[in-house]
Amino acid sequence: MPRLTMIEAIRSAMDVAMGRDDDVVVFGEDVGYFGGVFRCTAGLQQKYGKSRCFDAPINESGIVGAAIGMAAYGLKPCIEIQFADYVYPGYDQIVSEAARIRYRSNGEFTCPIVVRMPTGGGIFGGQTHSQSPEALFTHVSGLKTVVCSNPYDAKGLLIAAIEDPDPVIFLEPKRLYNGPFDGHHDRPVTPWSKHELGEVPDGHYTVPLGKAVIRRPGNDMTILAYGTMVYVAQAAAEETGIDAEVIDLRTLVPLDLETITASVKKTGRCVVVHEATQTGGFAGELVTLVQEACFFHLEAPVARVTGYDTPYPHAQEWSYFPGPARLGRAMRETMEA
Amino acid sequence: MPRLTMIEAIRSAMDVAMGRDDDVVVFGEDVGYFGGVFRCTAGLQQKYGKSRCFDAPINESGIVGAAIGMAAYGLKPCIEIQFADYVYPGYDQIVSEAARIRYRSNGEFTCPIVVRMPTGGGIFGGQTHSQSPEALFTHVSGLKTVVCSNPYDAKGLLIAAIEDPDPVIFLEPKRLYNGPFDGHHDRPVTPWSKHELGEVPDGHYTVPLGKAVIRRPGNDMTILAYGTMVYVAQAAAEETGIDAEVIDLRTLVPLDLETITASVKKTGRCVVVHEATQTGGFAGELVTLVQEACFFHLEAPVARVTGYDTPYPHAQEWSYFPGPARLGRAMRETMEA
Amino acid sequence: MEPSRLKFHVPEPEVRPGGTPDFSNVPIPKAGIAPRPPVDTKPEDMRELAYGIIRVLDDDGNPVGPWAGSLSDEELAEGLRHMMTLRAFDARMQMAQRQGKTSFYMQHLGEEAVSTAFRKALEPGDMNFPTYRQAGLLIAGGYPMVTMMNQIYSNELDPLKGRQLPVMYASKEYGFFSISGNLATQYIQAVGWAMASAIKGDTRIAAGWIGDGSTAESDFHSAMVFASTYRAPVVLNIVNNQWAISTFQGIARGGAATFAARGLGFNIPSLRVDGNDYLAVHAVAKWAIERARKNFGPTLIEYVTYRAGAHSTSDDPSAYRPKTEAVAWPLGDPVMRLKEHLINKGLWSEERHKQAEAEVLSGVLAAQKEAESHGTLHAGGKPSVRDVFEGVYAEMPPHLRRQRQQAGV
Amino acid sequence: MEPSRLKFHVPEPEVRPGGTPDFSNVPIPKAGIAPRPPVDTKPEDMRELAYGIIRVLDDDGNPVGPWAGSLSDEELAEGLRHMMTLRAFDARMQMAQRQGKTSFYMQHLGEEAVSTAFRKALEPGDMNFPTYRQAGLLIAGGYPMVTMMNQIYSNELDPLKGRQLPVMYASKEYGFFSISGNLATQYIQAVGWAMASAIKGDTRIAAGWIGDGSTAESDFHSAMVFASTYRAPVVLNIVNNQWAISTFQGIARGGAATFAARGLGFNIPSLRVDGNDYLAVHAVAKWAIERARKNFGPTLIEYVTYRAGAHSTSDDPSAYRPKTEAVAWPLGDPVMRLKEHLINKGLWSEERHKQAEAEVLSGVLAAQKEAESHGTLHAGGKPSVRDVFEGVYAEMPPHLRRQRQQAGV
Ligand SMILES: Cc1ncc(C[n+]2csc(CCOP(=O)(O)OP(=O)(O)O)c2C)c(N)n1
Ligand SMILES: Cc1ncc(C[n+]2csc(CCOP(=O)(O)OP(=O)(O)O)c2C)c(N)n1
Ligand SMILES: [Mg+2]
Ligand SMILES: [Mg+2]
Q: Does residue C2 have a pLDDT over 80?
């Protein structure tokens, strides 16, 4: 099977979807001729023409709003926001419109759009190229929110998202585009070509939305992670020697609560980790659900390890980033509590 | 002491602040000559002139953005968003700008603005006049978020917010403008003139940001509430006969965790209630903090009672609204767990 | 030399309550003088149309000039009936709200010509992205009044299942996109729909609608940028009814001469029309729609009209404008003007008009009776509480199913 | 008759990599022909300035026409030095990034005249709301280069404490508002600042800055609406450098003739200027600033220039435009043009220029050496981890204090 980077896998997903369905269109800032600043759409305009893949003016509200209108017509737009940090001008269209059109029109109109965006830090991008705004979407009824963590999933989830009849926020941890990153910024990164999850089938397949996966089975505790943090969690498990079960959530809404609950009931301990700022982050939702469903199985409070409640700093990136050392500390505390 | 409605109290706060400080300006859609669709700014233009209180074009991004520029100049703008449901076009200016200007400029520039907005349901306003978007602000580092629940607090908190050196999101539960509302929509509402918290001193005073208050002392459990839910919680306590301690959080960020923790350690049980949708709501944050700080004191999982994860419906408002019956059920379950 | 101090400028309407209405500063060009360029004219060759007012009916109710003649006698009579129906419908629903049968209503008083006449220029399959003040698109499109009322009453036959505020209709079949409570969002969506139609090589075009006040919103700009860049087959309508709740149009318009002029910076042909002149609205709509359908791209149209009623049932305009302003409005009343024209033509009479009023009213009353037999907001048949949980997604996810179960439905 | 099928239109640049640069479709008016209206001229009486290009230096480097003469000989020489300094600064920092001394850099190659000349038309106390491509405001304003470098290096003397991406400077004293990574937000903030100055009866004015691509953003519209409504004393600058990363200006401009024309719909005077002509930029800036300061309200200025370098150190333009496009750009290079003018005037020579280049470079190198002695991104002195937690609020709230403690700092 070919090994692809996550960028190539994402591109392949759009290629497959566009090839199968003429109604799939792709647009965004710099995505046409150039193929996107991360090159995720490279070659698509050449292959499918300027009507199917094209550059958009720099106006995120316009990009989302136009996609909504196209979806009402019957197309299936898959749009790119250049960085998740730049989605806010389009937030009204996502929250007030895309998320509610099916509901408010009782299905007269629907909104099958995918909003792709690179997310997360680890690239010295400072406050406006590093944010993880997933919690601003998971709170919005009517949206689905996906965070991919490897090429295989990225392709399968993106095809599933494009085929989904409802709006999907598709977050791509940019630090994972070229290889798994476990937070050890001082070590060379394995490229995806050396990783089994870099094996991506040609052609069509899906990874269903709403299903988590256990990346590392374990008995001592459960770690709930997504995106880059999946690798941080795996590294922390190895380094602490704690036999942690690492769950890659993949879809935040709808959430695979079954897999989570089964694991925590087994291990009795749980740590949630994400890169986003702490207060009001998605970890709060996860902790709440876990303590609700597993209260009498819990032997320690559910801990969370997150970005600090500050804007994402530039120079101090590695102090800010929740790496294996910080996660390991919380894991040990949770074992000892 | 005069008894005021919450509208009058809010108006009085702006009046006092404008009277004491020439740099306080007030603007927003319909707030000038007319005095706002809820009349919160009535009379201010007449009293302070068109340069201090004026109508704005219908452009929430413009309103917030202009306020940020004014604050950078040295003014202290207190702006109105006509309904919290309409804040999203201004969300980028709030999140990417207001919240981060002090940090990113290391204090060269600051952003002492207040963004007032009516929030919450209970008025048959449908999906675009009923939302409670507080969690979309509490997740954003650099913002403070306040929800008032009575005229006395509203005035004191709003003056404190205007005097605060940082941006404050000030949410006004519109169902409380004219009297406390406990969810019994079929009963007449007591006006504020009949309620002791309607007693509002003339002139200047503040209610400090970051301090919760116990509205009803109790021993059996702790209910964390804010805004309209404070009255729902009090009603549920009376109706269930459960001796609940009802805490009115008043400020969500920064949070008065001390008051919360002391109460839960005493009662051993806790229910969190809000009107906003459940997934990713601020209840998740509260539950997480409580279980973190009080895990070994908890005798039951911390429960949450919230709006459902749907847009706010029109006709079925009273099925959607988390009233005393729904809260009471959760309280009983928490007592029995 | 000490530089002079800066001054802060806030636009103000000419008159406030207590004053005498004064529209003498509103320039009203004579009917018939605006040219009618061919639909393939370059925008830069017709800029003056953004500054005048295209008018067909003159002060005596006779059609004049190059924009006259787009409608047959039957169509004119039908147009009058549509406007009268919308007005009667509004009056009854306004009253129903006062009677507590629903929570909220928004009427079209004085603006009936705009949406009813525009609708008649569209083809089946074309799509409107309306605001809350274009119910004339439904009335003139033949959408059943009783279905509109079911929605307004949130009753058991409400097509939107009680989820939406009254008047927030949606109908794909009738080319009426789901109304949003959030202003201006629909404007760029209309452009997106039109882009899609072009992408697919279709023949259907889109129409976006916005109010004068809402042109200040950012999505107005998004729509102009995208429409201009992709030459989208879309007609972008601005209904300038002079007011945005309590705020006069000068706050959104600022120093600009007209709202239509906003299109010039995008090289989008921009026309200003007498919005109270059924004939002018129809003629200009037809021109713009033809232009779009023939691949000449977008058109911006400003309809100059006046919101004679309150903003909504939550509003009392006497707090911010003279009570008699509507009467003083120089472009008159659209129903009266078309009526006069039909009488001039010998197609209509005062008597016939009274009779038509009675017919229209009885049609509205019959619809109302039927709708009320299926319930009103607080009485009779209701949508189910299950409908709160349905339709958030195509398929109900587990967490919503749990919540629905907790709700016991 | 079957109506014709709709077609989707996507604007394309004239040439792509592999092709020969072609600017023959860019109309370049002769220098000196644009009129210079008095600063109190009504916008409607000067619309043509939005469609031409105001140019002072002719093809031989001589100043011509009514916009000439705003600068003394000393000022011209100083201007040249500023541009040369900015260029040398850019070159060194670009290289420093390649050497791993920082993460990122953005240069001004080809656009040096715009911000340096504009800055000289401002008064102390005026405030700029810049983008990332106006460091010339700091250079020409006398801000220490070493402080800029400290910021770029995120070192121990970085005035922004390592929190910000390189080049995101902020200085109140030097009239330079904190740069945002989010495009266009600053445009309406500039208007707000100007409104505040007017509210206070101050004399200081504001200047907003935006790129051609970013005019498509919604806050461009917000700024125009508010500036027009409140007649804010603000100069709104559009730097049209033809490219927005890989996207040519036609995607943002769409069907419109010019970006400046966007102002006409708001009745804001709108001027288009040769952005590679130091004299023209200065003259027009001076005019607009005087207009603002004299209470005649906002002005929109489009600077026609060319981004000769890559968008940033993360970009390689050869993937989307011919490599030699910069050379073919018809308005030339701003440094070369001013140099030629000074030589014509007998104020300068090739020799003098070489010498000045050496002087400028040694100034930059000295600053760089000093800055590097305080650290670079990955080596030497660093801001503290405590600085991550400071400055989020004026006073650190309890939850941040807890997090700081957990971080062990
Ligand atoms: C984003 C947003 N902001 C504010 C409002 C509140 N609002 C509802 S209608 C209205 C006035 C709109 O005026 P205009 O566009 O002129 O339309 P008209 O009501 O006159 O038809 C306002 C401010 C809203 N619905 N949405
Ligand atoms: C809101 C937002 N969207 C997208 C981006 C990504 N981005 C950074 S620079 C840029 C191009 C801007 O082009 P232009 O406005 O022409 O300025 P120039 O770089 O040419 O000076 C883009 C799309 C951003 N920074 N912010
Ligand atoms: Mg209006
Ligand atoms: Mg550019």
A: no
Which of D220, D230, D255 faces C267 most closely, judged by CB atoms? Answer: D255
- In this structure, the answer to whether residues B68 and B178 fall within a common structural domain is yes
pLDDT tens digits, one per residue of A137-190: 999 999 999 999 999 999 999 999 999 999 999 999 999 999 999 999 999 989
Orientation angle between helical segments D278-293 and D334-344, nearest 10 degrees: 100
Domains of chain C, start order: 43-378 (3.40.50.970), 385-409 (no CATH)
Query: What is the tens place of the pLDDT at every residue in D214-262?
Result: 999 999 999 999 999 999 999 999 999 999 999 999 999 998 889 999 9
Q: In this complex, how many residue pairs, one in chain A and one in chain B, have their CB atoms less than 8 Å apart?
A: 121
Residue A207 maps to a domain: no
> What is the rounded distance in angstroms from the CA atom of residue B239 to the CA atom of residue C340?
66
**pTM summary value:** 0.98
Instruction: Tell me how many degrees the CA angle D401-D404-D409 measures, rounded to the nearest 5.
Output: 130
**Of the residues A156, A174, A198, which one is the last residue of a structural domain?**
A198
Contact residues of A toward D, CB < 8 A = 29-30, 32-34, 37, 50-51, 54-59, 61-62, 85-86, 88-89, 124-129, 278-279, 308-311, 313-316, 319-320
CB–CB of A328/A238 below 8 Å?
no
* Range(s) of the domain holding residue B37: 6-198
**In whole angstroms, what is the distance from residue D301 CA to residue D287 CA?**
11
Domain count, chain A: 2
Structural contact between residues A210 and A254, judged by C-beta atoms closer than 8 angstroms: yes
In a domain, B321, yes or no: yes
Domain ends where: B144, B163, B198? B198
Q: According to the model, what pLDDT value does residue D1 have?
A: 56
CATH code where residue A162 lies: 3.40.50.970
Query: What local confidence, expressed as pLDDT, does residue C1 receive?
Result: 57
Nearest chain D Cα distance for residue A213, angstroms: 31
Residue B204 counted as domain residue = no
B38 lies in a domain? yes
Domain match, A19 and A99 both: yes
CA distance D126 to C43: 39
C-alpha A185/C-alpha A235 separation (Å) is: 12
Residue indicated by tokens 């209206």 = D37
CA distance linking residue B31 with residue B25, whole number of Å: 12
Contacts of B257 in chain A (CB under 8 A): none
CATH number at residue B324: 3.40.50.920
**Cα gap B82→B95, rounded to integer Å:** 19
Note the ipTM here. Answer: 0.98
